[in-house]
Amino acid sequence: MNSPDATALSTLAALTLKRVLTVLALAFAVAALLNPLFITPFIVLLGRTMVIAMVLLLVFIAAGHWRQTWLPVWLVRVLAVGLAAPVATFIVYLPAVGGDVRAVLSNEWRLSGFILIALSSLMVGTLLALGSLYRERDAQARSQSLQFALERSTLERQALDAQLRLLHAQIEPHFLFNTLANVQALVEAGSPQAAAVLKSLIAYLKAAMPRLNDDKATLGDELDLVKAYLELMHMRMPDRLRFELRAADDLRALRFPAMALLTLVENAIRHGIDPTEQGGVIEVGARREAGGTAVRVWVSDSGAGMSETAAAGTGLANLRARLKAFYGETAQVELLENAPHGLRAELVLPT
C-alpha cells in the first residue's frame, strides 16, 4: 500500500482539468434535472451537486491507489464511489441544519431531497466510474499494444541484422574461393598472365575487403567494387570479355547491401561468359523508374543464356534473402532472357 503522502500527490496529479470540467458539467446537468423537484434555490442545489461530484472524483482517484489482494482494483473504485455518494450528500446537508443530524432525518422535505440527491449521485457517479474505468482499460490496452509492437519491431530488426551478418559470412568465402580458383586455373595452365592477375587480385582484395561488412555501403561503392572485379576478370580473358557500366550519378548515394550486385556479376561470368567459346559482353547499370517509386539495377550478359544459368547455386537464393532483409517484401529479383542469347538479371528496389 502506498504511503498517505504518495497517495495524496498521485491523487492531485490525476486531478486533471478535463476530469474536473467533466464532473462539474455532469453536476450542473443533475442539478438542472432535479431543480423542479426542490424548493431550494437552484444555486444552492447546484453548489451541493458540485461539491458531491468533486468528492466522488477524489474518492475514485484515491481508491485506485489502494492495493490489496482480495478484490480487483476496479471493483474497489466502484464500491468506493457507491459508498461515498450518500456520505457526501449527508455532509453537504449538515451546514444547512447547523450540524444537527436529526434535523435532516426528521424533516420530510429535507429527507426526500437528501434521498433524491443521494440516489442521483449514486447512479451518475457509478456510471461515470464504470465509463472512466473502461476508458482507462482501453488506453492501457492501446499502450500495451504499442509497446508490444515496438518490442516486436526491435526483435525483427535484430533478427534481420543477424540474418544479414550470416548471409555476408556465406557470401564472402564463396566470392574469394571462386576468384582464387580462377587464379589457380591460370597457374596450372602455365599462363603468362597468372602473375599479373594475381597481382591485380591482391590489389583488388586490399581495396575490397573493408567493404564486405560495411553496413553503410552505397550503390556507388558497389559499382566501384564491380568495376574492379570486371577489370580483374578481363585480365583473365581479355579476348572473351567486354563490359560496360552505366548508372546515373544521383543513384550512387543509394543505400545498397554490400556485394549484392557483385553476386549477379559473378554469376554472369561463371554461368554466362565462361561456358561459351566466344565469350560475351556484360552490362551493369542502374536507373530510377518513372515516378521515382523504385530503382532498377541490372546485370546483362550475352553469354550462354537462361538454360545454362537457371540453376545458379546459392548465390541468387542468398541475394533474394538479403534484399528482403535489407529493403522488405517489395524488393524483387527478376531473371529475363536476352535476345538472341544471354541473361538479364534485374533488382527492383524501393526508394
Protein topology:
Elements: H1 4-14, H2 17-34, H3 42-63, H4 73-93, H5 101-106, H6 108-188, H7 194-208, H8 219-236, E1 241-247, H9 260-273, E2 280-288, E3 294-301, H10 306-309, H11 314-327, E4 332-337, E5 343-350
Parallel strand pairs: 1-2
Antiparallel strand pairs: 2-3, 3-5, 4-5
What does this structure look like?
The protein is α+β, with helices and mostly antiparallel strands and 351 residues long. It has two domains: 4-149, no CATH class; 191-350, Heat Shock Protein 90 (2-Layer Sandwich), CATH 3.30.565. 64% of the residues lie in helices and 11% in strands. It has helices at residues 4-14, 17-34, 42-63, 73-93, 101-106, 108-188, 194-208, 219-236, 260-273, 306-309, 314-327; strands at residues 241-247, 280-288, 294-301, 332-337, 343-350. Strands 1-2-3-5-4 form a five-stranded mixed beta sheet, with helices on one face. α2 (17-34) packs across α3 (42-63). The longest helix is centred in the middle third of the chain and has 81 residues, at 108-188.
The number of helical runs is 11
Can you give the mean pLDDT? 79
Beta-strand percentage range: 5-15%
The biggest beta sheet is recorded as: 5 strands, mixed
Question: What is the CA–CA distance across the termini?
Answer: 55 Å
Within the largest sheet, what's the order of strands?
1-2-3-5-4
Instruction: Write down the CATH class of the largest domain.
Output: Alpha Beta
CATH architecture of the largest domain: 2-Layer Sandwich
**Poorly predicted regions:** 308-312
Oligomer, anyone?
Answer: single chain
Q: How many structural domains can be distinguished in the coordinates?
A: 2
| Gross geometry | rod-shaped
What is the helical fraction, as a range of percent?
Answer: 55-70%
Structural class of the secondary elements?
A: alpha+beta
Output the radius of gyration.
Answer: 39 Å
Order of helices and strands: HHHHHHHHEHEEHHEE
Number of E strands: 5
Write down the CATH topology of the largest domain.
Heat Shock Protein 90
Question: CATH H level of the largest domain: which superfamily?
Answer: Histidine kinase-like ATPase, C-terminal domain
